[in-house]
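Continued from yesterday's entry.
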Amino acid sequence: MRFSTRVLLALIGAAVVTHGVLFALMYRTARDSLFREMRVQVANIASTGALSIDAAAHESIRGPEGAQTPAYEQLVRRARAIRDANRRSDIRVKYVYTARPNPAHPSGFEFVIDAEESAEERSLPGDPFPELTEPLRLDETRADERFSTDQWGTWLSASAPIRDASGNPVAVLGVDVSADVVRATLADLWWRGAGALGIAFAVAGGLAWLIYRWVRSPILEIERAVDRVGQGDYPIETHLANSEDFERVALALNTAARALRERETLKENLARIVGDQVAGRLALRSGNTGRSEAAGGDKAPVALLFAGFRDASERLTREAPDQAAKLIEELCAAVIEGVVEYGGEVVSFQRDGLLAVFEDEESRAAAGNAAVRAMRAAFKVRRQTEKLFWRWMAEDRLSERPWLGVSVDVPTTEGVEAGGVAGRVISIDGLTRELSIGVLASADIARAVASEMELRPAGRPGDTAVAVYGA
């Protein structure tokens, strides 16, 4: 996963966690605040309603027969008025009732007044009051700290004392609000909060995306620059203006790329000079001008072989970066194996390939011995590398077969004086891909090996600058 993608996911994750925790805390705080507010409202309804109840008339109602008295009917109408006045959108009272102490019942209280119209749900004077989780208190106004449940449902209840003319509590007025109403209010609060949370997530996601784009741009630029360096294209001007930190990275990358380019240039020049010097000394030592006649002329005791594997190394670096060094090493080993098998000596490695020298180690009477061995080594190198390429493709390390050409030439004193024996060999190698011929040789080599193998002319008609023959 890319670093910029991890940054995006980290930002989104941080937004989700922080907003989620904040929402949970705010919702819990709001829920508790709303519940306390509703408790206060229910308690106020109970205390205000209790003030409107005539304690003397209330005490006159005794037993079920008390429900037939005018005082009972008057108190019931009063209780219903309290109930109906508090059935609003913000709160809805379900039951209003009164109770007084009665030690004969387990709860210690009995019903007196019930505002309910339904005979099935209405309690009569003297009916036992149910036992509650939070029992009634005769001496104070109170509201439940949590929902309570009885045979009629789940409620948020409150009660307030009904006092006689002397101020003594003789009964309580109870008010019940259905838990469904409270839960609906809390659910509405939750959905409003969830909607706000969703908007916050969307805004946070948009900001995270902008930050991701801001971070991703310089990272991609660095990645492209590093890829070019890995492929041998050394950039020296990478500018990242997003921040001072990225600009420092760009300056460091430019410095490293410049140093690598200078080192590569020095290495190439050194390899070319070494190759030219070695080949030149061999040419001077043999006294060979490199111009053998087709029949009976001078021998060619020295030959140069160049295997150009730049395309292969670039493809390996691009398609198998983790294994590129090992695979390029295996490729070089295959080339060296073919060179050494036919008595060649590796002169130098260059960025474009490998340069080897074949010298006549036997009697000079053997015409073209070095050139013949160089050509046979060239064929061996081609076979070995082709096998490698096909194997790597079968192993999915390469998507297609790279190009590797092999060229063979002779060192000449004219070439040394012109400053480019190795350059001449590399120029011939450049034609291998252009002409799509795996092994090319100069005209001098073709004449030197004519007695043992036949090479056909491969250059463009009329091209006399570099006359090449292919096999």
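--- second protein ---
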Amino acid sequence: MPLDQTVLDRREFADDVVELRPDIAEFRDTRAPGAMIALSRARAIAKARQADLLKFRRTWGGAVEDVAGTDKPAVKPIDRAAIYPRSHILHFSVLATLVLFEGLANAYFFSKGSDLGLLGGWLQAITVSFTNVIAAFFLVGFIGLRHMSNRNKPIISGIAAAGVGLAVAALLMLNLTASHFRDLLELNAATLALGGAETTGTVLTPVSEARTNPFGIQTLEALLLFVLGSTFAVIAAYKGRTFDDAIPGYGGVTRRLEDASRELEKALEAGWKDAKKLSQPELEELVEAKNLLDEICQDLAGPGSQR
């Protein structure tokens, strides 16, 4: 018989077989090693993500010292589930609608001062609208108001409050300037219509006019422009505040745990399909993973669900 076709009888070497460790020997009886490895991996990741969520609640995202398991008085942990939208499509749609609608509405207001007419007015209006909406969304709502929500970070909360005040003042100045610009355009057009030209240069200084006489709005169109811009800024700030959970980071750590729990659930479903063929250690692994998934579901529901 050729050498490459020689068949060895393992029974002849029975005395030379090394005894395997229990944690290695159990894989001999594993019916679906790939599925069990995937289950173990999903379970480990989910357990780590669960620990991250619980630690975040105890420490308010690192704002206070983690004193779990000690006799030191601990700050009351977060006692609610994270609140955030499932999808951000609605938020972005609202922002786009605000910018587009405000730009179209203001295009007529700015068209008198542009050589391009309505098109030029729309380009000016859309620039003001975009700045107004995006600044209100990010600076006031998403960054400022949310970072004011963590009472255990007084320094950051104070800085955020000051930033919100400055951002609101800047947005107010922006909308007042746009309104005064509309006023100056109207007055300039009226002056030219009457044959005068001595005041036409003031149309180039709306910022100075807004600074020296902020609420001296003279025309109805300018007042409507100010009300419209201020209203849209408030709506944009609200959408920025509700874009994620009020406590920065809380929504992110919760979403990571939700993703890990979905992977664990998929691995569990794959494992239960061949449950009748599994060994005792494999069944124990499935049961432990299921118990972990139940605990994660309770944690995701919030501490109130466990009372």
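The mean pLDDT is 79. The longest helix spans residues 154-193. Will compare against the first tomorrow.
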